Amino acid sequence: MNLFKAIVIGCGRIGAGAAGGSMQSHAEAYSKHPGITLSGLCDADPGRLLEAAGRFKVKSDSDYIRLCTEIKPDIVSICTPDNTHDEIACSLLESVSPRLIFMEKPVALTADAGAKMLALAQSKKCLIAVNYTRRYSEAFQKVRDNISAGLYGNPLQATMTYGKGLFHNGTHAIDLLRYWFGDFSSEKPFEKIWGPAADASYSCVLTFQTGFKAVLRAFDERVSTVFEGDYIFEKGRVGFTNGGALWHFYDNTESPYFRDYRNYIEKNTQATCFAQPFENCLYRAIDNIVAALNTSAPLLCDGQDGLMAIRIAERIRNDYEAHSSCCR
Ligand SMILES: NC(=O)c1ccc[n+]([C@@H]2O[C@H](COP(=O)([O-])OP(=O)(O)OC[C@H]3O[C@@H](n4cnc5c(N)ncnc54)[C@H](O)[C@@H]3O)[C@@H](O)[C@H]2O)c1
To answer: Residue 272 — pLDDT band, cuts 50, 70, 90?
Structure first.
């Protein structure tokens, strides 16, 4: 197996586990993977960079082009704020062109900027992987396998609730719905809720190409952080709350409460992966990246998935804003 050199740009919570990050970080996952050498870290904040470089004991620089020119990494993670992702990816592609860029979501804040970045990556033969984390979680993968195998029967309705902005966090929900149920044929927004950093959250009805519908509900982050989903199928029902930390599974069965009724009744049987669904997500993502570079295995979340999420978000926002003054 080749040993790939990796660099992380942005040593914050998700990049290097700074400031009490509760999830596994890119730097930690690279440093644990036997197919990778974590070779360098970059951050624009000198104090943060010094602290992270000390913990991981690797080269560091506040200038990512200088660091990449010196190290010539195979893989670069971009873990900086949302509004910097595509610009940093394009400048890497123009100068040092690694074999793969692993981007935090969202890949850009407009579909045009995302498409331009992906076209440049393709011209440089650089793969783009995107961290819509749930695609790398064994728990979310298992539910997808169960849906595909027909274990729950046909999907009948889905509801997801999110806050913190349509692009920042709503795209996680859009990507998960696409991952589990396939592509949408239309999106109909109906509500706008406050979101941070000029990224409002919008509610909408999403219709899948199969005809089945999902409702995406926006929630005000200032009240509480809500990211959850409820999915009703013919034979069963699946739900998660707290981002996926807690799961609920139900069977559609004869009601124990009402004679001659059927109800969705919660059951306890759960695979162990549902107990800690995010424990090793980034390690699993990097395992997928290593397999893609070594054996051309498909990426579990590629640049097209990242672009599709922001394309859909952009359509929802533009449609709502175009009609907000005249029709709502
Ligand atoms: N996939 C997920 O589940 C998930 C979870 C958390 C965060 N994220 C995403 O990761 C990104 C970072 O989030 P975070 O919570 O770690 O943020 P953070 O603020 O903790 O860290 C960002 C870091 O980037 C640095 N930075 C900013 N501009 C830079 C530049 N030009 N060059 C080098 N360093 C620069 C900052 O100094 C900071 O240390 C965001 O886009 C966020 O959406 C994704």
So the answer is: confident
Q: Which of 11, 25, 43 to mutate to test the pocket of ligand 1 (most atoms within 8 A of CB)?
A: 43
Domain ranges of the chain: 4-133+280-297, 138-277+313-320
| Predicted model pTM | 0.96
CATH node for 138-277+313-320 = 3.30.360.10
Our answer on whether the CB atom of 164 is closer than 6 Å to any ligand 1 atom is no
Is 4-133+280-297 CATH 3.40.50.1360? no
| Four-residue CA torsion sign, 238, 241, 243, 248 | negative
Report the distance separating Cα 29 and Cα 44, nearest Å.
22
Please tell me the distance between residue 9's alpha carbon and the centre of ligand 1 in angstroms: 9
d(CA 243, CA 236): 21
> Candidates 7, 8, 13, 101: which one to mutate for ligand 1, based on the most atoms within 8 Å of Cβ?
13
Could you check whether 4-133+280-297 and 138-277+313-320 share the same CATH topology? no
- For residue 2, what pLDDT is reported? 63
